[in-house]
């Protein structure tokens, strides 16, 4: 009799656990996807921010605009004297001192040697098959007597699960602007 009671209690507990386990696995999977998306977005945000911090550096007399913000901040072109030769090189493209970033069809793209936000040759920094970037913007805020503050904002969601979304914002100071 005791064995039957123990088996009945055990089977009830096993049934309750078997209903709880898939829900737990689903929650862990959603959390893992959310964390991976956050890491991916922050990594791309830091890349853009690092270029913004370098914008305008010149070891001489460089000609041109060090930072171009176009399309309401959805596209930017950053120039800085990477080899410290005193000019912003435009060619060859592999040695160019300008880099562009833009939002295009749900993907963040980059182009070394960019001079405009249009055209071909842009490389995807993000995979739209994995996640979709719905917002990318860079804003420039001037502070009287101080270097401008540049803020990068990015919002993305998983392609497979649009409810899993992440928004990130990061600000840097443009000391060379």
Short structural summary:
The chain has 177 residues and is of the alpha+beta class. The protein is built from one helix and eight strands, in the order αββββββββ.
Written description of the protein model:
- The protein has 177 residues and is of the alpha+beta class.
- The chain has one domain (37-173).
- The chain is 30% helix and 33% strand.
- It has one helix and eight strands, in the order H-E-E-E-E-E-E-E-E.
- It has one helix spanning 2-54; strands at residues 67-70, 75-79, 98-104, 107-112, 123-124, 131-143, 146-158, 165-173.
- Strands 1-2-3-4-5 form a five-stranded antiparallel sheet, with helices on one face.
- Strand 6 (131-143) and strand 7 (146-158) form a beta hairpin.
- The longest helix is centred in the N-terminal third of the chain and has 53 residues, at 2-54.
């Amino acid at each position: 009799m005791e064995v039957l009671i123990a088996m009945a209690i055990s089977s009830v507990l096993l049934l309750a656990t078997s209903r709880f386990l898939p829900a737990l696995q689903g929650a862990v999977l959603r959390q893992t996807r959310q964390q991976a998306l956050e890491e991916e977005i922050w990594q791309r945000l830091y890349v853009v921010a690092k270029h913004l911090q370098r914008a305008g550096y010149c070891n001489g007399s460089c000609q041109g605009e060090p930072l171009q913000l176009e399309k309401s901040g959805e596209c930017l072109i950053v120039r800085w004297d990477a080899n410290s030769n005193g000019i912003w090189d435009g060619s060859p493209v592999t040695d160019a001192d300008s880099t562009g970033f833009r939002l295009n069809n749900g993907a963040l793209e980059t182009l070394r040697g960019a001079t405009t936000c249009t055209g071909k040759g842009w490389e995807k920094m993000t995979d739209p098959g994995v996640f979709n970037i719905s917002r990318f913007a860079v804003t420039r805020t001037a502070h009287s007597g101080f270097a401008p503050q540049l803020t990068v904002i990015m919002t993305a969601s998983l392609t497979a699960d649009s409810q899993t979304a992440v928004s990130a914002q990061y600000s840097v100071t443009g000391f060379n602007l």
